[in-house]
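Forgive a beginner's question, but would it be possible to get a protein, spelled out as residues, together with the matching structure tokens, please?
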Amino acid sequence: MTMDATRDFTQRRLRLGERAIEAALFLAAAAAIFITVAIAWTLITESLHFFDTVPLSKFLTDTVWSPLFENPRYGIAPLLCGTLLTTLVGLALAVPVGLMVAIYLSEFASPRARETIKPVLELLAAVPTVIYGYFALTVVTPFLRATILPDLPTFNMLSAGLVIGVLIIPYIASLSEDAMRAVPNALREGSFAMGGTRLETAVNVAFPAAISGIAGALILGMSRAVGETMIVAIAGGQQPNFTIDPTESAATVTAYIAQVAIGDVAAGTIEYYSIFAAGFALLLMTLAFNLLAFWLQRRFREEY
């Protein structure tokens, strides 16, 4: 075989290898899209059976959710309200704490401290959520009751939301720290050359430059909080309650789905289809949050 023939054979083999890799990557991306579309399609088609019986207006405006009672009512507002409250309580704790941890690890911690703190922090994400639920029920609620809220009921959204915040701190802190460490050091050196302190450089240079990755971390943390099941099912109660007071007991969409999907409800009944209707409402709620986050992310990019 001549040298030119050998070179042509090698190039063809490389091209075939590149095409195979491109095909594998395309299939991976297509699989992700297909799974997302399949989930949405399942929720929509099954929810249509529910809305054949329950008017959409009742579903959106009624403030009572009691599909398993003798006189059922199907207002999704209590479940969405409980989901929103626990998510907001969790984010109120996780966002400031997570971002401060990220700034410290990225801009102030020594390599040895970073290598020690970050793995320990990420271990929080590995703790089973059922453990978090009982921690909220047996530790956080008694602590709040003994210190600042003596009338706090045993099951409440405040304790559940605070523990959800602890759960999502590793997501926000770790991903935000990775985004800030990816900022070129030339930007930091320019800030130092202008007389900026390490804190000013971290807050005014590194943080805005990493806003895209930080926004992604916040979206992930928010989605994780919205989809949490066991913590709210154990510590928040499972009785739907239309309220904006986090110290009261309530149920979330995921807690209701977990409650009904254990097999006590026969398939094909209106109670069974209510699972999919609630899940579809949660999907739209998550989509709205993500669109809001993307809009804020784009606005921050334009400002900085």
